[in-house]
Every structure is written in structure tokens, then in C-alpha cells.
Write a structure and sequence with these properties.
alpha/beta, Rossmann fold, 7-stranded mixed sheet, 33% helix, 20% strand, disordered C terminus
């Protein structure tokens, strides 16, 4: 993939890697993996990167599409401070927004039901990712999540996703999972982190009359 990404972006990601914000190994595999998100996303004007860390895949998506508005979200201020400086160096201040917030708090803010697309590379468990992403998505919006090399078949149970209005897309991109927000997430989501994981609610709720 030489030459596909700007040298300025590669430099930012190398710095993120040196600070421990990106993950192990060289930058190039992270760039290649992030590019898969671009291929998997339906046409959209805005994407929110949940738990962005060192800015992947959000910064890569911004680099690939100069018309895309990107929101980088992370709860750790050392990472968001770094990302704000990086966005300034890249000259993307007008279209890339950095937000320091916990995802469950963001889902109960002005961002609720406003986002057309959410991406998550390594945010958390499937249940936590679904519960935190769904309240942010507008109806019809798309969630794209990075998957392990050999995901289990019941990793994203349909009944559990339905609790927050998500539905598995029929066609799944390689190494990723894609979902559509078919109805607005109920007001009680997202809950506090101490609550039982979303998918653990399925047996109890399906037994109710």
C-alpha cells in the first residue's frame, strides 16, 4: 500500500505507536486494516470512531476521503490531547473533531441518535460495543466493528442486538462485522458499566410476558 496514505498521517501514527496508543508492530498493517473499514462503510458524510486510541481507523478514514467528517472519541485524555495536536498538524481541524468522553455518557448527550456511521476497532466486547454504539446511531445508520481472525458464530446474537435496535447485515466484510440501526435504541441504553452485559439480558427479557 505504499503511497496510498499521506506521509503526514504515517508520521502521526508512528508517534502514536511510540506512545503506546496504537498497538504492537509496524504502522503499515494498522493502515491496511483501517482501510478495510473504508471499503465496508456505506456512503456517509460523517463517521464516529468509538474508542479511537491512537486515531485508527478514524484518521485513516479522514485521509482516504477528504470530504468525510470524522469524530474521534476516547475516554483517556492523554490520547485525546495527542489527537487534537495531530489533527492540527494534519490541517484537518475543520472536519475532524476530537471528543474526550466515556461512550456511555456520550450516548446520553446531544450526540444521541445523530450519527450516520460508527466504527470500532478494539473498543470492547461485542455486547459493550453494541450497547454503546447503538444509542449514537441514527435510524438507518451503520456500525462496523473489527473482528478476530476466527470469530465464534454466536458472537453477535440477533436477539441481543435487537435489544438496542441493531440488526446484522446480510453481507459481512472480511475481518469486520457490519450492522444496521433498524430502530432507535430504547432510552434505557446505554447503562452504567456495572450493569450486566447486554447479551446476558436476552434470556430474562424473552421470558417476560
Amino acid at each position: 500500500m505504499p503511497g496510498r496514505f499521506s506521509p503526514a498521517l504515517a508520521a502521526v501514527l508512528r508517534e502514536a505507536a511510540a506512545l503506546g496508543y496504537l498497538g504492537p508492530g509496524p504502522v503499515e498493517p494498522h493502515l491496511a486494516h483501517a482501510a478495510r473499514f473504508a471499503a465496508a462503510l456505506r456512503p456517509t458524510a460523517q463517521v464516529l470512531d468509538l474508542g479511537t486510541g491512537g486515531g485508527v481507523p478514524g484518521l485513516v478514514l479522514a485521509d482516504l476521503d477528504p470530504d468525510l467528517a470524522v469524530v474521534l472519541v476516547d475516554a483517556r485524555t492523554n490520547r485525546t490531547d495527542f489527537l487534537r495536536r495531530a489533527v492540527g498538524r494534519l490541517g484537518w481541524d475543520e472536519r475532524v473533531t476530537v471528543v474526550a468522553a466515556r461512550a456511555e455518557e456520550l450516548g446520553r448527550s446531544a450526540w444521541r441518535s445523530q450519527v450516520p456511521a460508527v466504527v470500532a476497532r478494539s473498543f470492547g466486547s461485542p455486547a459493550a460495543t453494541a450497547e454503546c454504539a447503538a444509542p449514537l446511531l441514527a435510524v438507518g445508520g451503520q456500525l462496523v466493528v473489527s473482528e478476530p481472525p476466527e470469530p465464534s458464530p454466536n458472537r453477535w446474537p440477533a436477539a441481543g442486538l435487537a435489544l438496542v435496535g441493531l440488526q446484522v447485515d446480510a453481507v459481512q466484510p472480511s475481518g469486520l462485522a457490519s450492522f444496521t440501526q433498524v430502530e432507535a435504541a430504547p432510552e434505557r441504553f446505554p447503562r452504567r458499566r456495572a450493569q450486566p452485559l447486554l447479551f446476558e439480558l436476552v434470556p430474562r427479557e424473552t421470558e417476560e410476558p
